[in-house]
Every structure is written in C-alpha cells, then in structure tokens.
Amino acid sequence: MPFLTGVAWNGTQFIASGWGLALYASSDGILWQPVYQGTGQQLLDVGYGDKSFVAVGYEGWKGIILASLNGSRWRLLARVPGWLTGVTWGRDRFVAVGEKGLILVSRDGYHWEVAPTPFSQWLYGVAFGKDRFVAVGEALLLSRDGLEWQPLPVPGGKTLLGVAYGNGTFVAAGEKGTLLASHDGRTWEEILGDGSFWFKGVVYARDRFVVTGYGQVLVSKRGWDWEEANTRHLPKYLPSITFGQERFALVGHARPGEGLVAFSPDGFTWEEYLWLGMEPEAITFGNGLFVIAGNCGTLLTFSPR
Questions:
Q1: Which residues 6+ apart lie within 8 Å of 162 measured at CB?
Q2: Across the strands, what pairs with 255?
Q3: Tens digit of each residue's pLDDT (9 = 90 or more) over 164-193
Q4: Is 9 helix (H, G, I), strand (E, B) or coil?
C-alpha cells in the first residue's frame, strides 16, 4: 500500500487517498481494497536540450524515460532494465546514467540506445563541458561521445552524487561533504571531503558554482574556495539546483508530501520561495520555463515572474 495522506467517510465506507493519486476503500477501517493503486514512478532528474525536456527515474525494477516539447504534456518513452538517476545534454545528444553502469544516449530525447559499458558501479550524475561528458557515482567516467567511456580513479574513494561544468572547470559533489575539481575531467583534486553533510546538486552560472545537498549550500567563484550560504529557513534536504531568468532555483523537502522551490539572485541569499504539494527531486530550466520532477511521477511547470 502506498503512503496515504487523507481519509474520508461517505456514509457507507471509508475512502483513503495518497501519493500517486492512490485511492483505497474500506467498510470497517480495517480491511482495505485498492480502488486505484497509484503510480509507482519516481523521477530523479530532468534536463533540457534541443527544444525538449527529458525526465528520468524508475518504476518498480525498471528505469523510465519521459519527454516533453513544452514541459506540460509528457510521454513515457521507455522502460529500461535499471533505474536512471541523471541526464544531461551535450554535443547534440542526451546522455542518461543510472544503475550498475547503465548509460543511454539519444539524439532527440525520444529514441534511445544503450551504450556498452564494461563496469557495474552505480552512476548518479552526468555533465558536459570542454567537448566531453563526465559521469559520476561509485565510479568516475570520461567520454567524448557518450558511447565509449573511460573509467578514472575516484580521489578519496567516496561516492559522487552530482557534477557540473563551468568556466573551464568541472566540479563533482558527493557523500561526506566531498567536493572535487578538475580542469579537464581527467585529473581531479579533492577540495573538501571530511564533512558530515552530502552534496548532490551542482550548477554554474553568474561566475560561480553553487552546490546543494543535505545540510548546506556552498558557493564558489572558482571551484576551489567555498563559502556557506544562509539557508537556515529552508529544509535540510536540497537535492537539485538550476539557473534561469537571472536567478538560481533549488528544490527541497522536509516531510512527506511537502516541498518547496526557492530562488536566489546570487546563491547566498534565498528569501523568495514557494511551497509545493509534492516532494521534488530535480529542477531544470529551458525554453523560458522551470520544470520540477519528483515523487509519484509528478512534473510541475511554471514560468517565472
């Protein structure tokens, strides 16, 4: 039974509702029958490129890919043999990564092929810069075309959860407060790595990197020197960040069924935020729109003021 959030009595039976539009009925409040079991989809990342949005995640044991031209109407395109956790656009193609070394490539976001990979480590993020892709997770990988990948050593041996490129530098973030930096995606230096927090969302805009995760938001002009932003009024769990319409935007949640999107002009001050009736896991910006993806296959689209 999915997580149920509300119940009502109609005179003859109880009706309980929950995540994924789930509905259950009961005449005595003890034995429940599904009216609609709800969607089991969980969306973990969303990207934009070539006038299309692509969202990835999982449903049951299968990974799922959805695509949209306008951010509002989505098509479920594929179920693949493994969860998908990250997606990016570069060199005229989408690259999606996920469970046990699973990597898929698409020119248009609608037709996908599996890239052969001789490794089985989980991958959680992927970025494009300097005409190359970098994928991170339990492994650190480099590719020129998204199809052929070279494994690299991970400094410190820690799991990496996100990666971004900007101003000639890749920044990767992960568990135990880990931050790595590289000028070429091949040789990496561990900048931070002894913290109690973890980092996942990474973005570069306005001459700075901003990193989000659990417990902290950090800002850096170069990728080597970091300052902490003021986020005491925000939830601890902040998994994703993007930039659009001259402002940074991050998503987070503190309790089941409730989340928010927050905005900042500089990455340091987050005074504008909106509460959401869902748990967001990812946010991106494209075609003048912010798109938020999260639990139960929820996809929200809105245009900034």
A1: 86, 124, 125, 136, 172, 173, 174, 199, 200, 201, 202, 211, 213
A2: 258
A3: 999 999 999 999 999 999 999 999 999 998
A4: strand
